[in-house]
Amino acid sequence: MVRRDTGGRIFPLTRRTPVERAGNPPTGQVRRGAKLAAVPVAYAGRRVAGAGKRVLGRSAAEVDRQIRARTAQHVFEVLGEMKGCVAKLGQMLAVYEFALPADVAIPYREALCKLQDSAPAMLPGTVHAVLAAQLGDDWRALFRDFDDRRPAAASVGQVHRAVWHDGRPVAVKVMYPGARQAINDDLQALRRIGPLFSALLPGADARSVIEALCTYIGEELDYGLEAANQRAFATAYADDPDFVVPGVVAQYRDVLITEWLDGVSLSRIIARGAPFERDRVGLLILRFLLSSPTRAGLLYGDPHPGNFRVMPDGRLGVVDFGACAPWPPGYLEMVKDFAPALLSCAPDELEAAIRRNRYVEPGRPLDSDTVAAQLIPLRDAVLAPTIDLDPDWLRTQLAAVTDLRLTNVIRQLAMPSEHTPVARTAVAGLGVLGQLQAELPLRSEFEQWFPEVVGVLDVDRIRQA
C-alpha cells in the first residue's frame, strides 16, 4: 500500500495496528523507526519535485517556502502521533522556533501550535482500562464526572477534565500505555534522523539536544516525583497575587490527579496578544523562573508555551512539574565567582574564571579576546534597564553561539554536566520569552532574586552601565 505526500512523493504506507488505532503510541524500533524514516524520505522528495518546479518557471523563493511549509506539517504530524521522546522533541523545537529565519518561522509556528494544542488521542476504552488498572475496577466511584471528550495531549500522557468526588474540578493525567517502551525505542530512532533536524535548525547541535531530551523525558515517566515537585510549588506559591499552581489531589503509579486550571493558552497570547499583554505575561514568566529556586527550592524545568495559562484574573497559571531540579551543588558560588569577570568582560579575568569553573577542558587553548568580544553585546543587553527580546537580535546572538564552524570560539567551551538543568531552564525560558517578543526589566528582576550575586559586584557600576 502506498500514499502520496503533500509534495507529490509516493512512499509506503504502514498499516496502523489496533493499538495505534486506539490512540496509543506505536512501539517497537522497526515500526517507530519506519514512521520517522518517512520524514527525511518525503523531505528529499520535495526537494527533487521543487527542482522540477523551478525548471518550469516557479521562483526559487516560492518553491522553498512551499517545501518548508509542507515539511513542517509532515514533521509535526509524525511527532504528534509518536508521542514520547519524539513529541517532546516537537515541544523543544517550539521553544527554539524563535531562532529560525523569519520567512521560515511562520509555517513552523503554525504546525507547532497544532502539535502543542492537539495530538491523536487515546480512545475512551483505552483510558478506562488504564484507570481501572491503576485506581481499581470501581475507579468511577472516585469521580462525580469524567469527561472523555477533548483530552489535552502531553508528551507521555493525556489529560482529561473530571470532577472529583468532593466536587472539585480536576485534571486527570493518564500515561500512555507503552510509553516507557516507546521512549526506549526512540533513542536509536532519533539518532538516525538527527541530520534532518540539523537541516531544519541550522547551527543546532542536534545530537546533544536529542541526548539531553532522552535523559530529560525519563523524569516525566515518574508521576510520583512530579507530584512531589508540584506539591512543593503549590505550597510555595499558595495565595500568590501573580501565580497559580494547581494542588495535587491524588497520585497513582501512572495517573496524576491535580486541580483544574481554566485560562487562555500562552500560544494564543503569542499569536494574537497586544504588545502590552505580551510584556506583562513575559514578566510573570521571567519572575516565576527566577524566583522558583528561592521560593520552592527547585528550578522549573519545562518552560514551554503549553505549560502556561493566563487566568481570568490575570495571574499566570503553571502546570507540568515533571522536570524540576534543585540548584546543582555549588552553582551559586560558581556564579558569584564568574560575575565580576562577566561584568568587566576583561579577557584575562574571563579566561581565569572559565578555567577555575571547568568551562573549558584543562590544557585546551582559549581565545579569550574573542570570547569577551562575543559576550559584550549580551552583557550590555542584560545591564540595560530593559531587554527587548527582538527576534532578529535573538537570532543574531544564537547564530554566534551555535555556529558549528571550527573557527567559532564558543565551541572551545564546555559545561559541567551537573549544570545541565540550569542551562535547560535558561535556554527554554529564553525561547518562550523570545516567542512573546517581550520587553523585560531583566536586570532589576535578577537583582531582586539573586542579591547574593549582586552583592559581590559594584552595584553603582551596574546601574550606570
**Mean pLDDT across residues:** 75
Number of H/I helices = 20
pLDDT below 50 for ≥5 consecutive residues: which ranges?
1-34, 39-48, 50-56, 114-119, 199-204
For the sheet with most strands, the description reads: 6 strands, antiparallel
- Regarding quaternary structure, how should these chains be classified? single chain
Helix amount: 55-70%
Proportion of strand residues:
5-15%
Structural class: alpha+beta
Can you give keywords for this protein?
465 residues; alpha+beta; six-stranded antiparallel β-sheet; four-stranded mixed β-sheet; 20 helices; 56% helix; globular; disordered N terminus
Describe this structure in a few short sentences:
This protein is of the alpha+beta class and 465 residues long. Helix content is 56%, strand content 12%.
Describe this entry's structure for a reader.
The chain is of the alpha+beta class and 465 residues long. Among the domains are: 2-118, no CATH class; 265-465, no CATH class. It has 20 helices and 16 strands. The relative contact order is 0.10.
Q: How does the SSE layout of this entry go?
A:
Layout: E1 2-4, E2 10-12, H1 18-21, H2 29-55, H3 60-82, H4 84-96, H5 102-117, H6 124-135, E3 143-146, E4 152-153, E5 157-164, E6 169-175, H7 179-192, H8 194-200, H9 206-219, H10 223-236, E7 243-244, E8 248-252, E9 255-259, E10 264-265, H11 266-272, H12 275-295, E11 299-300, E12 308-310, E13 316-318, E14 324-325, H13 331-344, H14 347-356, H15 368-383, E15 387-388, H16 391-402, H17 420-436, E16 439-440, H18 442-449, H19 451-454, H20 459-464
Parallel strand pairs: 7-13
Antiparallel strand pairs: 1-2, 3-5, 4-5, 5-6, 6-9, 8-9, 10-12, 11-14, 12-13, 15-16
